[in-house]
């Protein structure tokens, strides 16, 4: 049988050492030798009490203790309390590896899910006053940079309005609530909300934006599949399939989260590389259409295919090389959006950093300053860089 515990008997429990023996009494040279251990918090409770009582009456030891504590501080530099931006993704991935979700988020919607969650975490950390911090929205209007001044709350109201285009396409409520979703584009919707609000937006806008983002992810998850991703989402003067519209919303969420982080002096990291790659791929796929539109407006050089109008002529192409996060290579057809770009007809090569390319596509970097490396037809390179900047909008 196991030995009986003293608590199981009727005998009284032994008194604590401090009560039984009184405070620990040590000589001066012993207390002085304990100062190093005390500074490292390595003393016992009795030794700590004895040292601290001694420091109250011994000036030389108190000065030495202070120097030792400062030295310990140098051995343990303060670390940032901000969580690793990738921590949420790693935790969720580990959980999902153990137990897959009953209704998974479609792969093409995961960048939007991740970016809205990161922005929401940023908004959780800022105070009431910071919601009114000035933010300047920047974009490229086709010929040059432009901007619009608002606040942190105004930026979230803007995201709420434009995400509402996807919500309407999915049959959810329009945050504007006035049936204007089929007409105005993103800028018009935002201006409508800003004008109709009885006062400048406050942090109260976070609730509707957060609820709408959750509804979007939940709805595409329940209706997920290859068919639903092709549902058309109208942006007013153009449309995108749902899977591309969700990528577009993830991209804008990240860009405006950086705008907010800059306004409130908060660190913010780029998206995960696999998500960044998809955003870059969407921009690369849209470049030929934007380039053709600029050519019609007289803002780009004329098409110069060898046999323009002849079926099967691929025309010229440009190699877009993206380095770093989300990197890869894309062949961009220069003379017709419908042409199939081929390496044999490559006339130029442009190399950019992945994050730098995204900031160019957001209108945050001038086209003239974007390319890290250029080789070949300078006119073609200029047309593509300006077309990338023209992807941006308010």
UniProtKB/TrEMBL annotation:
Residue ranges of domain Mycothiol-dependent maleylpyruvate isomerase metal-binding in the record: 113-261
Lineage top rank: taxon: Bacteria
Keyword match Transcription regulation: yes
Domain Putative zinc-finger residue range list: 33-62
Gene3D superfamilies: Anti-sigma factor, zinc-finger domain, dinb family like domain
Biased composition (Basic and acidic residues): 1-11
Region (Disordered): 1-21, 179-208
Keywords: Transcription, Transcription regulation
UniProt name for this protein: Zf-HC2 domain-containing protein
Species per Swiss-Prot/TrEMBL record: Streptomyces gilvifuscus
Source species taxonomy: Bacteria, Bacillati, Actinomycetota, Actinomycetes, Kitasatosporales
